[in-house]
Specification:
Elements: H1 3-11, H2 19-31, H3 36-43, H4 47-59, E1 63-68, E2 71-76, H5 81-114, E3 119-124, H6 125-135, E4 142-146, H7 157-170, E5 173-178, E6 182-183, H8 190-196, E7 197-201, E8 212-216, E9 219-224, E10 231-236, H9 238-253, E11 256-261, E12 266-269
Parallel strand pairs: 4-5, 5-7
Antiparallel strand pairs: 1-2, 3-10, 4-8, 6-12, 7-11, 8-9, 9-10, 11-12
Helix pairs in contact: 1-2, 2-4, 3-4
């Protein structure tokens, strides 16, 4: 396989085309009509497997078969057929979205029964923080947060934006307390920053935050990402979450109001 063909075959993988399927499709595209035997010999793939691969390519609309005086031959269809595969994937994603809410509700109902009683979950590394952050979108109505920095500072920006979009979709208000007196713009999800986010500031001398804390539903969680030991903990306990919520509100009332500047999250301390 040439270097160019190898690169192209890898580019076709996201379309649901396997490496061997891509080799056949690209050979037919380059050299025109061929028999299964010819493909088998040139690509050194068993003929029985070539037939199976051709069936898959025909199903995807990438290859057609024709009959001539020498028997059955195969030919590559136009590369524009790949656009049809994209459209098909888009339809599948839309159908998945439509059915997902009902599935999530049922799974949440089942898992809620299993969650009865206290438990502690421990997470490590970047993936662990992503999981904890995504868990927080389950907040019902409100998420309370002691924050050191915007989540974009320690998580992938695209992922962080998806979380903010999910908060908007679920209509979750995020109330945040920070030590910072000024925050630079941090999001393009304008509706979240403008309508679903509230921020207050407290001086370090009064309350010095070293790790981040989240409070929602019956969950009290915290995580650290400043040092090499990146970890987080979720505690599921209704009484503990209730007590921590009271403490947050106590500090919130004694914190300084901040003014939102623009719609992308920039905020400064109100003098």
């Amino acid at each position: 396989m040439s270097e160019q063909t190898d690169k192209l075959s890898k580019l076709l993988e996201p379309f649901g085309v396997s490496q061997d399927e891509a080799r056949i499709y690209l050979l037919l595209t380059e050299k025109g009509m061929k028999s299964a035997l010819g493909l088998s010999r040139e690509l050194k793939i068993a003929r029985t497997r070539v037939y199976r691969l051709l069936d898959k390519l025909i199903e995807k609309g990438l290859v057609s078969q024709q009959l001539d005086e020498m028997g059955k031959k195969f030919i590559a269809n136009s590369h524009t057929q790949l656009k049809m595969l994209i459209i098909k994937k888009e339809h599948e994603v839309e159908a998945l979205k439509e059915s997902s809410e009902a599935v999530f509700e049922q799974l949440e109902s089942i898992s809620a029964k299993a969650r009865k009683g206290s438990k502690v979950l421990y997470y490590q590394g970047q993936k662990g923080l992503e999981q904890m952050t995504w868990n927080s979108v389950k907040a019902k109505g409100e998420l309370l947060l002691y924050e050191l920095e915007s989540m974009s500072e320690f998580l992938d920006y695209g992922f962080a934006e998806k979380v903010r979009e999910e908060f908007v979709k679920r209509k979750v208000i995020v109330r945040e307390i920070s030590n910072s007196r000024h925050l630079s713009a941090w999001t393009k999800v304008v509706e979240f920053a403008r309508d679903y986010w509230q921020i207050r500031q407290i001086d370090k001398k009064d309350f010095d935050m070293q790790v981040e804390f989240l409070i929602y539903n019956d969950v009290y969680a915290f995580y650290s990402y400043k040092n090499d030991d990146v970890f987080g903990v979720e505690v599921y306990n209704e009484d503990l979450a209730f007590m921590q919520r009271q403490m947050f509100n106590f500090i919130w009332k004694r914190s300084n109001k901040m003014k939102l500047i623009g719609d992308e999250g920039e905020a400064k301390l109100v003098k």
